Amino acid sequence: MNTDVSIIVAAYNAADTLDRCLDSLLGQTAGQVQVVCVDDCSTDATPALLARRAKEDNRLLILRTTANSGLSAARNLALPHLTGRWTFTCDADDWISSDSVAHLLAAEHDHPTADALLFRMRKVYDDGREEPFADWPHYQTFTGREAIRLAVDWRIHGDYALPTKRLQAMPYDARTRIYSDDVTVREHLLTSQLLVQTEATYYFYQRSGSLTHTDGLSRLDFIVANTHLRDLLEHYSVDDATLRKAEAYIWRVYVGIQRRLTANRAHLSAAEWAAARQVLREALQAMRPDRLPHALRFNPHSLCLRPYALLEAYTKLLLCGRRLLHRNY
């Protein structure tokens, strides 16, 4: 079946939100759509929900990973099965406006040389509040080099449609279970010749709740993925201003995660802490302090120190000061 747009949904224990997501994707007002939903070995009612939905609508194709593998691996499993000219992804707890595909096709018509079509994103909170991710003019266009300057610290988001053949030739980075897809998003944007902002709307659900013990350890993947991001930017020889902006973003993320893990050291086993310190040590060694602005590099709250033992000692000193002031991480 030839279709206009294919949509990849990776789902893991998403029974509470998946119906809303699928309703929005299969309820488009224009265009022929295909939805490929990859169940990443869910243990809740997700498999039963998908089986029911697939019986009701033959536009929905269900795949299943052989082991819980993470977002990128699940998305990559869908790539050989895509039939649309264009493809985008939608997380299982997010949704899109009913006229999104119509707007994507209109943008394709108006910009036949476009090789990435951007959604407008709106953040949606538990209490029903909405706010725009960014407010760009109608049909603003970008080159890849312009887009990457905004994308290194997420001033431009990662929700877009690509020509399917292009996505199949540039699959998602799966080196870490989570966050590595962020590296691929930046590569997709950077290597685009013409990106077009459309009127298609993506609703990004902001799930409430603080980081748990497990979430905190999983954030180490964020640090590793950011190391890969630096490698990517250097590989494509981006300009110095973009490299400096990226390094500042990478350092801020690193400091936040390193400090939170150090503050919660008592909740980690000896093996967990040893593994975390190894990731933190290697990432610190890969940093490029020469690219950091002086105001950040020499700020007492984000001082860039090496080797890792010195940074760790300084972090403990800062945390001790926060405890004395009755402030927690």
Q: How many domains make up the 3D coordinates?
A: 2
Report the strand count: 10
Distance between the termini: 52 Å
What Rg, in angstroms, do the CA atoms define?
Answer: 21 Å
CATH superfamily of the largest domain: Spore Coat Polysaccharide Biosynthesis Protein SpsA, Chain A
Question: Which CATH architecture of the largest domain would you pick?
Answer: Alpha-Beta Complex
List keywords for this structure.
329 residues, Spore Coat Polysaccharide Biosynthesis Protein SpsA, Chain A, 2 domains, ten-stranded mixed sheet, 13 helices, globular
Describe the structure.
The structure is a single chain. The chain contains 13 helices and ten strands. The chain is α/β, with parallel strands linked by helices and 329 residues long. It has two domains: 3-206, Spore Coat Polysaccharide Biosynthesis Protein SpsA, Chain A; 213-324. Strands 1, 2, 3, 4, 5, 6, 7, 8, 9 and 10 form a ten-stranded mixed sheet that branches. Strand 2 (33-39), helix 2 (46-56) and strand 3 (60-64) form a beta-alpha-beta unit. Helix 7 runs parallel beside helix 9 and helix 9 packs parallel to helix 11. The radius of gyration is 21 Å and the shape is globular. The model is unreliable at 210-214 (pLDDT under 50).
